[in-house]
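User: Round two. Same drill as before: sequence, then structure, for each protein.

Assistant: Same drill it is. First protein:
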Amino acid sequence: MPQQPIEKVKVNEVEVDFVGLKLLINNEWLAVEARQLKLLHLFVKNHGKALSRNQIMNALWSDTIVSDNSVSQAVTQLRKSLHDDKDTPRFIKTVPRVGYQLIAELTFPEQVAKTVQSSRNKRLTYLVIGGGSALLGIGLTMGIIELAKPSLQIPHYSYESRLTSTPGPESYLRYSPQGRYLAFSQSDSRRSQMDLAVYDAQSQSVHVFKSTGYSEEAAEWSPDGNWLIYYRHDPISCEIRVMSVSNPVETWRLSPDFHLAYCEVGFSRQKMHWYNDNTLYVQQWQNNQPILTQFTLSLEGYPSVIKQEQVDNIAPILMDLDKTSQQLLFVEKKPQGYVLQHLNLQTSIRRAIEQREQEYWGLKWNESEQSFWLGNENLRLVSLNGESEVVHLPIGFIPDIDLNPINQQLAHAEGLINVNLYTLQVKSLAMQQSVDIQQLSSSARTDILPTLSSNGRQTAFVSYQRRSMDGLKHVEIWLKNKDKKAANLLVNLPESILPRFLLWSANSENLLLGDSQHNLYLINIYSRHMVPIISDYKNVEKVNWSSDGKQINFTTRSAKLVQNWRYDMQLSTTELISEAVVDIETEQQLLSVDEIRKINPSYKYYREIINVFLTHQLAELLPVENLAPSFMLYRPYIFDLGIYYVVKQGNVLTLYLYHFESQENIKIANIGNHEQDTHLMLNISASSDGKQLAFSKVEGFETDILLQKKEQNL
């Protein structure tokens, strides 16, 4: 055992970084909760000794009274992180009537260094014997060093210029095939729609060439650069248009445009990819799901669609196509997170590159079948074998990237965003009215998931101290009392916890936090202490407090087996109540009002259930034809008297109420604008009487376009 503090250790084949709070498993660094590593650190310090439950409780919860169940859950979580099996343990052994023992083999950094040095000495001896020459030894050593270098070759880029400085976001960057023009969309002067603009590198000027009263987005060039296609949409229509750009750029605003295809209203748009003269790949929406569609075009007169077909089993929410090799990069949303994948469209061979819980922004091929650019919290070059290098750190975030095909100039959007919380008080649940809207949280942070107590006096919310859109740092739970001016910090969360929902107990003394990994945590607002209560269960959902606040009911699912459980807060025990085989196809069936009242955001199909219910109840009275796009943006809320939901029409956000008793759909108020999708979880919450509300809103979305120049290799 080393005498100095333990910062790193190898436990069997797993490398542990206690300072960085991470484990290296199967060549991938995984973030781990601090308490798990504190427990592992305790085991390492007492390697080979059986630790009692009291010893573990005293070390991990020295200032808090917890039960034996907390120790069991902590050990279970650590075993899960180490991929250990309690029945055939390789890391942690259960010692009956005593506690737990670390049985894994430990290797410390100084031992690794000695082993490496010994190996190097042996290799050097062999080289001297075999070659008999110091020069040969040096040459072989240099060769080994060269072979050990990463295969990812990082190009050198330097800042060249900023192209735009207009209010609002700029997005959908797209270079022309000849590299002269850079098309993009930007907010109009009223920030009510998006206009099409183009940067001309020859004259170094920007031209706005489409400003029609519609939103025009995601322009794409034909392979010969003579045609431009784009989305044109408003609250009630969406289509793909095509226009000629073979004339001088100053005359493009006068060019006639033509209908190419229709698209689904209200959904987010992705860049189109005109692969060759007769083939166009487009992300479309079908049954509220993204699909990849291949259009076959005719170029007689002007481009027109003569055939379209779906590319099987591809549901891209972000994609980029390398047109020289027909290699597709795309991101799909899965239950376990977002998966970045590579597909050869010619052979249909696909493979996953990486998976993560945060959404991807900005995706662009760099070298075919070798490397690509990623945006989000930084500008990163990534190889297909998983190597990665940060090339540029923005002030905020990077939502879009494109690469000039001629000189490799890199264009990227870069900017900042505010996400604020607001409270709203309504006087009546019966009519559109003037409402009192007040800001609840600070613009210095990203605050989401406001959740009101049943009496409307307390609002809990999740706060991120973020350098960028998804560089998650210092995740916290805050509490704002209606009678107090300032909000108070409840708990700090490990960065590995990504909150999905908050649920108040009936007495407003406790909160349940559900995360993306189906774990449940109990937070007491008086002690300001968080305790994990449910972990290592698959697909936890349908979480509900008992009426007395002493028990928590929840459901788990394994294949088609559904199990109902009850957690007793006083005993800290979990009991299986019932189980049954359920037909999954009935999950999203139409529910009655009484059944609707019981569901909350912990239900797997929460948004879909409400969509089905409202569509059936309101039929022709809905403010839009399809609620799904708005529900993807804003999570609705069910309270005792009805359902609050937000509809996005154009850029305008409108709050509606469906009243259970009167069966009326009531427009309550406009609550602001939403210019561009940010992939953040936005929601609305209400008190049990519906008079007090809290909601999150994206504001101050500002991006500019920056150019990075590729330096010539010396």
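Second protein:
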Amino acid sequence: MTTAGPPGRLHLVADSDEVVAPATVVFVGGGPRTVGLLERFAASAPELLGDREVHIHVVDPYPAGGGRIWRRNQSRLLWMNSMASDVTIFTDESVECDGPIVPGPDLATWANGAGAIRLEEAGLETAGPMDFPPRLLQAEYLSWVWERVVRSLPATVTTHLERAVDVSSTNLVVLESGEQIQADLVVLALGYLDREPTIEQAAWAEASAGAGLTYIGPGYTADVDLSGLQPKEPVIVRGFGQAFIDLMVLLTEARGGWYDECDGILTYHPSGQEPVLYVGSRRGVPYHAKLGYTVAGTTPVPTRYLTVAALDELGDGVLDFQSRVRPLIDKELTFAHYQQLFQAHPERTRWTWQQFAEVLDRTLPTAPEFVAAVNEAVPSPADRFVLAEVDRPLADRFFDDSAALEKVLVGLIETDLLRRADPEYSADLAVFNALLSVYSVLSVAITAGRLSDEDRVRHVETEWHGFFSFVASGPPPRRLEELLALHRAGIVQFAGPDLTVALGKDRFVASSPAVPGAIEARAFVEARLPRPDVLAASDPLVRGLLASGLLAADHLVAADGSSLGGGQLKADADCRAIKADGTVHQSLFLLGPSVSGSAGSSGFSRPYFNGPGFRQNDAVARRLLQLLAVHSQKEGRRHAS
């Protein structure tokens, strides 16, 4: 346990002799969300807090700042999938909030300025604005931000390196060690919750153990025990996103292999400790590489078709996502692509932008009139945007053998790398920015109750988020270059789209409808994060609060009666917890991806983007301060009487 901040002292209410009792605020979770919230707390405290003494406790088994995901204790080979210049904890003039703007350096600026010596001492190199730095660099940045925030707080700050296991109805917070903290306000900022295995995953694990096989279910790759994956043995991997990239790194470079480059070709030199990875997924292709360039003027802009006003015009109440909302999303992305193409690269078009835009305004991207317009106005297929083809590049394709599949897949990856590095295809950047803008509108629609729970789970949190991640949240380009090098070295093989896995007598058997034959292995890895389900959360605190009724979450059921699992923890518009009986807990606040109303506010905000996380943090921080000030006034009146 560590303590920082000014020494505790009693404050006197101005112009009286009334003693105001100190206030205690407990934050459960010490990761970036708590850091950002406390930064906003410190910013508005001079305006709202008055002279109240405040004690802040931060409870987390991992050091405050980075928390679990951004802890220092992880492989330095694991990278961020964001550029250093795209990550900040600090507000800027773009942020629309009631609290004061307090600027601070983004990750790139910090690494080349205030953080340079700190990084050198940690044995880390600095990062340029366009670099994808190691996660350990982000850990150092967040640790520095935490220290700066603590210094700015008008409060004592105590950290507890352990878990909270219970919170009572009177805000008594019980820690794993048995220590108890009586709080006036409690904030749960728990981040992504681990969950118990599903029935299917538990069955896989039991059957695999009985057959002497290795099964690794969904989870955070950095936390997974990979020792059961043996050198040179085949491993079936289902999942081709960030979790796979981390797995790939930890089973190759982390086992002693290395790369060198000659004439622009990357070559991998095996250590002999690597397994052979047969990777497939629903799409059968890796996530698109992150864009390797910026273009002036191509920043996120307000949506044109998918707007709150447009949704209101569709009628009151719940909207059907597939028939009413999804067409507007498709139209939004199509508009962004072609607007950038026509305006930045007119030599590759045959019409004026105004003429083309008029067709899109009155049709949908799949309408025959618009398809005909694209064929006439955009001669090169490489310049056309067909969302279905972007989403599933291997759909309806069949390959004679695995060699034919691999040839096509290598070509797709090589083309992606070239295109994502070339500003001549800046329409891709425009689509990326449009995706961010669409997410902001969807978050408003969700919190306003315009989408059913089934549509939210099936179509937004699963399908739409999957598409967003595939297009906009892929790996650094270097990682796909390494993937190709590993393929040339025989370490990674491609298994195809719509990959299914079954358990045979003594082997896992994987197959894809796109390619004949099957793959057999004694190890199988689900390279993905577990699907969120708060009702299946393994965290004892969440389980206990749900059981006691202090927290509530729906068990979601689809229209056909099938279970969708647990919904998010319920919170009102002020982020206060909603209890099982429907009443609002006035002093228990919830923040994070497992909480209703947090859509779009998770993750790190980009500078000058008015990130929703900033806006939510500011509103909650000011609400906390207002409650503390009210309690201060009540205490003063009580002592006066």
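The longest helix spans residues 612-640.

User: Perfect.
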